[in-house]
TrEMBL record:
Descriptive protein name: DNA-binding response regulator, NarL/FixJ family, contains REC and HTH domains
Sorted UniProt keywords: DNA-binding, Phosphoprotein
GO BP terms in the entry: phosphorelay signal transduction system; regulation of DNA-templated transcription
Organism whose genome encodes this protein: Rhodococcus maanshanensis
Domain of life: Bacteria
Length: 233
């Protein structure tokens, strides 16, 4: 397995040799899969992995590339994650199920080197990581579609608190229950919902009903997409 923050002092010093890769992924099986794919690649070595961007940065490893999952359990925004990594001088390759086009767009427009599906064959994954670790753009269908995505699907700029309220309310909770779960007063929740609707309306993405709010929350990645019925594509 890879290093963790507690072992940061024992990380090897950067120098000539294999390209050094870090992973931000909260599913251990995915990390293990990537380790297996790169195990016989002499030009690549995974030196650190963590479930969040701050935790990876805390390791202090000198990296050539970070492989980033889009949807993490800490609820962080792909745009914020990519910007944090770039601020630390690290380039990013997104490795995702690509289940949410809006999240892909956020990451792509934040300046990643490419967007790669987890379902790609091993040879394709290895080639993409190798290229990205050498600073090359990895042009895939998902990446190109993200860059050229629907210009009408604009980021409405919700605050973290507004996103919490939206996710709870749009998932089916009543306003009173949202107030209880968030510690906000009921009138504050209603005020937040009014402001959320106004922001979506200003962006040309009206959300007049609760169903509309659910659709907007899924589009923007604050709620997971609905599962397809078994047997349907």
């Amino acid at each position: 397995m890879t290093e963790n923050p507690s072992n940061a002092d024992h990380l090897p010093v950067a120098g000539p040799g294999p390209r050094r890769v870090g992973i931000v992924e909260d599913h251990e099986s995915v990390v293990m899969g990537l380790e297996a794919m790169l195990a016989d690649q002499p030009d690549l070595v995974i030196v650190a992995s963590a479930p969040t961007v701050p935790e990876l940065l805390a390791v202090g490893a000198d990296l050539d590339l970070v492989i980033l999952d889009l949807r993490l359990s800490d609820g962080s925004s792909p745009k914020t994650n990519v910007e944090q990594l770039r601020a630390a001088g690290l380039e990013t390759l997104v490795f995702t199920g690509a289940e949410n086009p809006y999240l892909v767009r956020l990451a792509a427009k934040a300046g990643v080197l490419g967007v790669l599906r987890k379902s790609e064959p091993t040879a394709t994954v290895v080639a993409a990581i190798t290229a990205a670790a050498n600073g090359e753009q990895v042009v895939t269908t998902e990446w190109a579609a993200a860059i050229d995505g629907d210009p009408g699907l604009q980021d409405v700029g919700l605050s973290p608190r507004q996103r919490d309220v939206l996710a709870l309310y749009a998932s089916g909770e009543k306003a009173a229950r949202v107030a209880s779960l968030t510690g906000l007063a009921p009138h504050t929740v209603n005020d937040y919902l009014a402001r959320i609707r106004a922001k979506y309306a200003e962006a040309g993405r009206p959300a007049r009903t609760k169903t509309d709010l659910y659709k907007r929350a899924v589009e923007d990645g604050w709620l997971p997409p609905p599962l397809l019925h078994p047997g349907r594509q």
